[in-house]
Specification:
Length: about 675
């Protein structure tokens, strides 16, 4: 099943132009454990039919037909659970859309193989031990027989004490939710926190600082960072652009002599002497701001681009007022624990000389503002005076004031401006020159001027508490905003709200799709509701997983795990109850039917759950095999990124499997008993 399903999937990916990116690769890893489920159910049923005396071709046909509708619906329920994720909006949706498409493609390919190739191979090659060889059991066979006996006794006991089983299950469900919502809560994160491979140290000097002075400040920080643990390469550059566009390639103003950046490349993961989180903390300690120099320590973001963890958007009419409010907000929230790199984009970092012309005096002396502007432009920007040619090359000869004179108010004030009579008038006779600081950029949102106060956090799970504390402090200040000015949370907070809303709707739609498919399969609402209890109870495993591992609840990753479970955990229950309904229609008594159904479907239920869990263990544990050096490594980047989703699926599926083997038969037995009572009542009335 695996090679042929993957071959079909890779062919489809190639034809669609999809590359093997990190999301596609994870989707394939997630699907590896699930794609064998159909094959396991079909092959196990063929093997059981052959044990009961059927020849291989007959067993292959009968067994495949017996479970065909069940595995068809179970596959469609898994695909249906992933379908709503295709409509994930925004940049994050573009990033994650490969997951549902890839998983659905693999599962549909595995269904095709299970219906065609697997039965054909079994009919041609499958054999069962001869009658005289049955006593010679292997270790695994003996272990399986013992477990089957243990399970049979456990299920029989559960059927005798149905109320107690259901009360214990509901009590455990409530207890886990109460504990996780209270003392054992592990926090919330938007995206996983992965160890950085690079660290950026952004240095900024006061407006008007010459490039040489900025470079000196940058060199002083280079010396402080020398000998840093895990450091592989350190590179620095002065006069870079903005922090978001350090090379000035985005068209937003190019280089800036007051800014510099140090880039620290860290050692490969297997060569590090400590976690790069510790290295990042050490960089923040060594590269603290000092008088006249602002320092911001940052790292490259992984995954889809999102806003800052804390982003406060100020809107109003006057930029000076917005800047003053932003400065006040920074003073109010700057000491919140876990908040770092607090800044705003009210940036008066571009020094300029402002020229105010006295129009009356200029007119009296025979000068116009256009004439004055042309003279100043020539002095500062220059005028093409000639062309210098050598060989086939040429260069413009531009005449303007020397660099130091272009920034001197005295020199500019004495600049002669000639009127129509040819008389030289000093510039300061008709204009006033003053140094000012200008905004480097002006931002609007919804046709209002915008200033943003933003900050980062030392750990992603601190984002929500930091925002809550900032909101509490700002709400306590009554006179913070003048009339006509507004303050709102944006950035990651906005992204989180949008993602939570979508995933909540996607989970609801997934449940509805799964429920609709099962209702169509069983022609009943009661049986699908029994199966859906496994989905609800799988949350016990998810929350226990977070408590045991200490992982925060990832809005995206754990949320994806919960949605995935909605489609995965129902598969085994569908196969189990489908067989039970077949036996009921054949007239098997209830007292025998439920126990026989559990024993008959125990092996495929366990095998399908185990294969899915085994496929995700490397991601959950972080253990990876380096095929180049044939060595094992731990804590790889992929495992850090996908770990919370893998852990959620593993624990959730483990608990759901227990529920499928114990609680679902108990509920099914109650349903059959209720049907018997209603049938007996109707017969008595008749």
């Amino acid at each position: 099943a695996i090679p042929f399903s993957m071959l079909i999937t890779f062919t489809a990916l190639e034809l669609s132009g999809t590359t093997l990116n990190i999301v596609v690769l994870f989707s394939l890893v997630l699907a590896v454990g699930m794609l064998v489920d159909n094959a396991v159910v079909v092959i196990e049923n063929i093997y059981r039919h052959m044990q009961e005396g059927a020849d291989a071709p007959t067993a292959a046909a009968a067994a495949t037909q017996e479970v065909g509708s069940a595995i068809l619906v179970s596959t469609l329920t898994t695909v249906g659970a992933f379908v709503p994720l295709v409509f994930w909006p925004g940049v994050i949706g573009d990033f994650m859309s490969y997951l549902p498409i890839t998983v659905s493609g693999v599962l549909l390919a595995s269904l095709l193989i299970a219906f065609t190739l697997n039965p054909a191979i079994c009919a041609a090659f499958m054999k069962v031990p001869a009658a005289g060889m049955e006593s010679k059991k292997s270790f695994l066979g003996d272990l399986g027989a013992r477990f089957e006996g243990f399970y049979g006794r456990s299920l029989a006991a559960a059927l005798r004490h149905r109320a107690r089983v259901l009360l214990v299950t509901l009590g455990g469900f409530a207890a886990v939710f109460i504990l996780y919502g209270g003392p054992l809560n592990t926090g919330v994160e938007f995206l996983p926190d992965t160890e950085p491979n690079q660290v950026f140290v952004n240095v900024e000097t006061p407006p008007g600082t010459r490039l040489e002075r900025t470079d000196e400040a940058l060199r002083s920080y280079e010396e402080k960072l020398t000998g840093l643990p895990n450091l592989k390469v350190m590179a620095a550059g002065s006069g870079v652009g903005s922090q978001s566009d350090p090379l000035g390639l985005g068209g937003g103003g190019g280089s800036n002599p007051t800014r510099g950046r140090i880039t620290l490349d860290l050692a490969d993961r297997q060569d590090r002497t400590e976690s790069s989180f510790d290295t990042l903390a050490e960089v923040r300690r060594r590269a603290a701001s000092q008088p006249g120099v602002l320092v911001d320590v940052d790292r490259p973001s992984e995954g889809p681009p999102v806003g800052a963890p804390l982003s406060l958007e100020l809107r109003g009419e006057d930029f000076e007022t917005l800047g003053a409010i932003a400065a006040r907000i920074r003073r109010i929230i700057e000491d919140i624990p876990g908040l770092v790199s607090l800044d705003d984009d009210f940036d008066l970092a571009r020094p300029e000389v402002r020229l105010q012309v006295n129009r009356v005096e200029a007119a009296r002396l025979g000068l116009t503002t256009a004439k004055i502007a042309r003279t100043v432009r020539t002095a500062v920007n220059g005028t093409k005076a000639s062309v210098y040619r050598w060989g086939d090359d040429e260069a413009d000869v531009v005449v303007r004031l020397p660099a130091q004179s272009r920034t001197s108010l005295d020199v500019l004030g004495r600049l002669p401006v000639f009127n129509e009579s040819g008389e030289a008038i000093p510039l300061n006779a008709v204009a006033r020159l003053e140094r000012t600081a200008a905004l480097t950029s002006i931002t609007h949102k919804n046709q209002q001027r915008l200033v943003t106060v933003s900050g980062r956090v030392t750990s992603p799970k601190l984002a929500a508490p930091v925002r809550a504390e900032a909101q509490r402090r700002l709400q306590a200040v009554k006179d913070l905003l003048p009339p006509g000015y507004t303050l709102s949370f944006g950035g990651q907070s906005e992204d989180e709200a949008e993602t939570q809303e979508f995933l909540s709707r996607a989970f609801l739609y997934s449940l509805l799709i799964v429920l609709a498919l099962m209702v169509a399969k069983f022609d009943s609402l009661t049986l699908p509701l029994i199966i859906m209890t496994a989905v609800a109870m799988s949350m016990i495993g998810v929350l226990l997983a977070l408590i045991v591992t200490g992982l925060p609840f990832g809005i995206i990753m754990t949320g994806l795990g919960v949605i995935s479970l909605a489609g995965i955990v129902v598969n085994n229950a569908i196969v189990l109850l489908d067989y039970g309904e077949q036996q009921r229609l054949l007239g098997v008594p209830r007292e025998e039917l439920v126990l026989a159904t559990g024993l008959r479907r125990m092996r495929p239920v366990l095998l399908t759950a185990i294969t899915t869990i085994l496929g995700l263990i490397p991601l959950a544990s972080g253990i990876e095999l380096d095929f180049l050096s044939l060595s094992l490594t731990t804590g790889g980047e992929s495992s850090q990124w996908w770990r919370s989703m893998a852990v959620a699926v593993i624990f959730g599926l483990a608990f759901a499997t227990f529920l499928t083997l114990i609680v679902v038969p108990v509920l099914y037995d109650l349903l059959l008993e209720s049907r018997q009572r209603r049938a007996a009542k109707h017969s008595d009335e008749a």
